[in-house]
């Protein structure tokens, strides 16, 4: 089924929305970092009959109002509130919500703030509930008090340069297309819709209040700490708040956690994590694994979900072989078999 494209204005933001149908049980797709709603197009198109699909460009991405910024000091509250404003615009009381990567991080916040609005939560390679970078252990303890190693300062300036050039090629190691091929999907896999995905990556809003965001210098390795603007700073554990709120929410939406066996972006040894890069000798002056270990992102997620289940929630971890960071792009048929069964189980 084809998708309709609309520009809508909610109480919070004007943005582009992709729509599949105008009635049925709603499924809201929240895209990840360095992307936009286009990344979820095939997932929305292939929803079963009786479902209504909605995807949208989050603030800071695609066709969203460029004047709207993410206040990182509130964590991902801005993006969670935007999602609820979108549901309100369409008079939707509850929806199945799918979050990919950073979109999954937004979904953790939605679960904490608005659990009554969620029929089910499908987490696709989500960021750890504790944030990205600068923390260690299963409970997300900061490596340093200033959370050095997280925030906007982690983004490679070469990638920013290639985005500014609107580079669609593979000529440079840090071009968006190479980032897609080498870090986001399993190496060797080229999506049929690769050109559309790359254009979506290039549509990100750039700047110190957008991507990569601002940063502060730190005396602690790797010598950068979070700033206060943009999603990359909002993802810092510094602004994660009380993650254990997830254990106390009522109701507790059922959670399907889907991840690929070959994910290099979110793992216990993620290739964008300073701890991993330092351990591999790719960042100088590494203080050692005893001081700054790689963040156990997957293990942190599993630990909180096990506590979630012990507190009365339901979750299932579904691992897709031969997939990287985007299982619904790399094997949509297998993903949908699991995903469609999951959402159908909670519609009656």
Explain how this protein is built.
The protein is an alpha/beta fold and 348 residues long. It has a single domain, classed as 3-Layer(aba) Sandwich (Rossmann fold). The protein contains eleven helices and 14 strands. The strands form four sheets. The chain has an eight-stranded mixed sheet, with helices on both faces. A two-stranded antiparallel sheet has the order 7-8. Strand 5, helix 3 and strand 6 (118-124) form a beta-alpha-beta unit. The longest helix has 14 residues, at 297-310. It is globular and about 55 Å long. The mean pLDDT is 97.
Residues in β-strands, percent: 15-25%
What is the strand arrangement across the widest sheet? 1-2-4-3-5-6-13-14
Assign the CATH class.
Answer: Alpha Beta
Shape: globular
What is the CATH architecture annotation? 3-Layer(aba) Sandwich
Please work out how many helical segments DSSP would assign: 11
Overall number of strands: 14
Note the gap between the termini.
Answer: 25 Å
**Could you tell me the radius of gyration in angstroms?**
19 Å
| Helix and strand pattern | EEEHEHEHEEEHHHEEEEHEHHEHH
Mean pLDDT: 97
Integer count of domains: 1
Fraction of helical residues: 25-40%
The major beta sheet can be summarized as: 8 strands, mixed
- CATH fold-type name: Rossmann fold
- In CATH, what is the homologous superfamily? Alpha/Beta hydrolase fold, catalytic domain
* Unreliably modeled segments: none
């Amino acid at each position: 089924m084809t998708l309709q494209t609309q520009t809508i204005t909610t109480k919070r933001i004007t943005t582009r929305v992709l729509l599949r149908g105008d009635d049925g049980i709603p499924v809201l797709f929240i895209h990840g970092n360095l992307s936009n709603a286009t990344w979820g197009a095939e997932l929305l198109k292939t929803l079963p009959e009786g479902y209504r699909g909605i995807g949208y460009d989050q603030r800071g991405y695609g066709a969203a109002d460029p004047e709207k910024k993410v206040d990182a000091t509130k964590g991902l509250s801005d993006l969670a509130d935007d999602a609820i404003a979108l549901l309100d615009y369409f008079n939707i009381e509850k929806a199945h919500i799918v979050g990919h990567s950073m979109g999954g991080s937004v979904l953790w916040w939605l679960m904490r703030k608005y659990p009554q609005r969620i029929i089910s939560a499908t987490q696709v390679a989500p960021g750890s509930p504790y944030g990205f970078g600068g923390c260690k252990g299963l409970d997300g303890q900061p490596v340093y008090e200033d959370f050095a190693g997280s925030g906007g300062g982690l983004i490679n300036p070469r990638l920013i340069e290639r985005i500014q050039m609107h580079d669609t090629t593979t000529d440079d190691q840090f071009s968006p297309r190479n980032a897609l091929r080498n870090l986001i999907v399993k190496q060797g896999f080229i999506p049929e819709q690769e050109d559309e995905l790359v254009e979506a990556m290039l549509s990100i809003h750039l700047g110190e209040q957008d991507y990569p965001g601002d940063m502060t210098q730190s005396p602690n390795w790797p010598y950068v700490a979070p700033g206060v603007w943009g999603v990359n700073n909002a993802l810092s554990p510094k602004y994660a708040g009380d993650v254990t709120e997830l254990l106390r929410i009522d109701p507790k939406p059922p959670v399907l956690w889907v991840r690929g066996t070959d994910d290099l972006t979110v793992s216990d040894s993620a290739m964008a994590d300073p701890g991993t890069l330092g351990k591999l000798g790719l960042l100088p002056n590494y203080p050692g694994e005893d001081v700054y270990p790689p963040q156990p992102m997957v293990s942190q997620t599993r630990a909180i979900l096990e506590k979630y289940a012990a507190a009365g929630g339901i979750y299932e971890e579904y691992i897709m072989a031969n997939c990287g960071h985007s299982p619904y792009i790399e094997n949509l048929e297998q993903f949908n078999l699991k995903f469609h069964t999951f959402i159908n189980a909670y519609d009656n």
